[in-house]
Write the structure tokens for this entry.
Amino acid sequence: MGLEVHAQLLTRTKLFCGCETSFGDAPNVHTCPVCLGLPGALPVLNEGAVRLAVTAALALGCTIAHRSVFARKNYFYPDLPKGYQISQYEEPFSKSGSLAIDVAGQRRVARIQRIHMEEDAGKNIHHASFSVVDLNRAGTPLIEIVGEPDLRSGAEAAEYLRRLREVLMAIGVNDGNLEQGSFRCDANVSVRKVGDEKLGVRAELKNINSFRFVEEAIDIEVRRQIALYESGQRFSQQTRGYNADKKETYLLREKEGDAGYRYFPDPDLPEVSLPPAYVETLRDRMPELPEARRARYIEELGLSAYAAGVLTSHPKISAFFDACIALARQAPAEQGVDAVKIANFAQTEVMSGVQTTGLDASIPVRPEQLVELLALVQKGTISGKQAKEVYAKIAGTDKMPADVVLAEGLAVMGDVTEIERLARDFIAANPKQVAQYRSGKTNILGFFVGQIMKATKGSADPAIVNDVLKKLLAEGA
Ligand code: ZN
Ligand code: MN
């Protein structure tokens, strides 16, 4: 299978007019003569969209064409007021990229055939006895990323989509929002006999809006096609939908060939010229990609592959983690908190409270709070267990951990002199048990440890308590 992904470019305005791109506003408020397709209105290309499109193509290893052409893709549909979609056809702005995926411990490189720019259509809304159209989305800038048929299972397809979405989000090109349709996927599926070169007739699965459903739909479609071949039936090229409740794909329409679209260069738009210097500037400004970031976390910071994966799962989360690391490095070497400790705490405690919507994420603490908290553990002021309690108190607030520790009277635990003071008191107050210990009943030590743990509300470090007690009990022997 090969995937065709449509990703909305995060521009403020549409591809060929100044109307705002938006989601959820009142119908048809973001429209003008250009995106309504009124006669005589002329499109003007949005440079910001081009910049994002080229950045995406570079991140996916594509070759950039210094000259490309917008074409009209003609078809009739009520949500397409001009009667054609402005897209790119014979001369797209980029070709020949790739995306590495890891499935079941195996690395595969899936080729990307091309990426082109195009405008989105509007939206038809169907009511019981009538239909209406909202053209707010008409003219929204998209890139279409056309993959080669290099994927071999539903699981590989889902992984490809996850990695692709992650890259586009990391470079700020797309918000990865599947529910709102700003990242959507069609899957071309065909089968062939083992050993055959040529792929069979393909079916195109349309607009499946979750990674899980893509995986399911593909595997179900593969089984359907194999069953057809095995029973000797032939079928034509089709566009199919997926019914997740019935767990089956269904026929939408017999597929049109490209000829049906009567593509031709759009005479209203000049060809797009992307000078090498322009492309190189964008290449230089490319932020760190998730793949490189994971490698850095593993190789430089010593994180596990799993931790690196979790902490690069969203650009705001990796930015948060990077800020923590930078802060920890500012501290003197002996007080600096180790990256692995930050990663562990972030994964176990912080991540459970993180909520993401598109490119936004709400993280319950600031890096300053987390690093100060872990520094308190490092210094032995509080135990790891207490750190979790303090975290619960600072999460979602502006409170600093040191203030909470002070206010709650938690700051004694790892303090050896404080534990010694308590231990001396207990030894003085329990002469009978001391005598038993000194006569050889050393397991009475547990009694003292228990008393001290109780007095410190479980906050003392048991190893230190043990050491201190053994030392003091031995002194008097
Ligand atoms: Zn407009
Ligand atoms: Mn398209």
